Amino acid sequence: MDKFRVEVLRSTPNPQQTIWSAMHQDYCEEFVWEQRNTFPDEKKAGELVIKHLLAGGRGHYGPIEHPQIVFNVGYFPHSLMQQIRTHRVGVSFDVQCLAGETAIALKHTEKGLPTSRSIKALYELGAADPDIFKTLEIIVFDETQQAFTTGKIQSVICSGAQPVYRLTLSNGSYLDCTTEHRILTTEGWHTMAAAVGLEGSSQANNAQVKMTKSCQVIICDKTQTASIATVEDVQYLTQVLTYDIEMQGPWHNFVANGTVVHNSFRYTGQRIIDAAEGKRDVEDVFYLRPVGNYDNRQGKKYLYSEKQRNEDKKWCLDACERYRQRIDEGLAEEHARSLIPFDARQHFVMSCNVRSLMHLLDLRWKRDAQLEAQKLCELLYQHFEAWCPEISAWYTKNRAKKARLSP
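Structure (tokenized):
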């Protein structure tokens, strides 16, 4: 876990003063901006925020949502990313995603049953019954046979509000997605932005974007036959709640509004090959827990020994070599990666406000949370402490590691 990193990319300056000004405007008849020269300093503002908004269980959280902080999180295992993205409120991630109403093509079973569901509906199904994905199958694209088949969902993830764009295709369909979502084109897998050469601004007051490249994408027609459609237009829509799907192997893609798109599990194939060739430490690529004593879910204690860890490290190296061999034999990266261990290390960008950051700490800093999630929260808290010293001190005394969920 010594490789785990959390750094701050951007944050609202004087966050406690910002919260105080929002609180003050709630009951002040005057325009508070005109009083900015008489605002309390950052420390005093923090003390007043605690007194009037947080102390005594008041829970007046609205003004606390204004200051924002953006983290770059690095070298954490994929399982941590999956867990953090599944259970959170008000936290956004820079990842590839689709708008909630995007239709996901399902395996056709019986007459009268739907042949598609929205990705939002699939997320809600999984939240209500995680076992639903053991039987539910969706349409995927076999890149070896160049034909559609079926696959099973690992999980559906809500990724927060993100800027969404609409691609309009020559067959009359459209796809609403983020710039980072990868789509299958006639030239291979590309992010949406790279595929169409996206240029322009997505600011609400100047939302003008344009394509600078022609692009043809692989689509699934009504007979489930692969064909090609041309992207005719791209428009910026707005920020909306977005979702993504993680698929089980071997094909890590699915059909969204008729277009073949990639699933969310990110990886870099070259680093796996580098590990196989001894150019990179395998533990820079995959995560293994340290040697030590642990508890299982039933509370039974066990030792993860040096011998076991060395065996697992060798297994990771063997998987890297097998991956390299299959790539050399011509397999696509999306196909070969089904051979690698699950906990590849990942980097991501995460943004929160003060309220949602405390909520995340409430959820994942409790003593029975996943060990890696606790470590993430520990690193997040260090930045929280430097950013909002008075509020973080109140949080430490009243809420830290106590699993008292904020509303």
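The mean pLDDT is 87. The radius of gyration is 24 Å.
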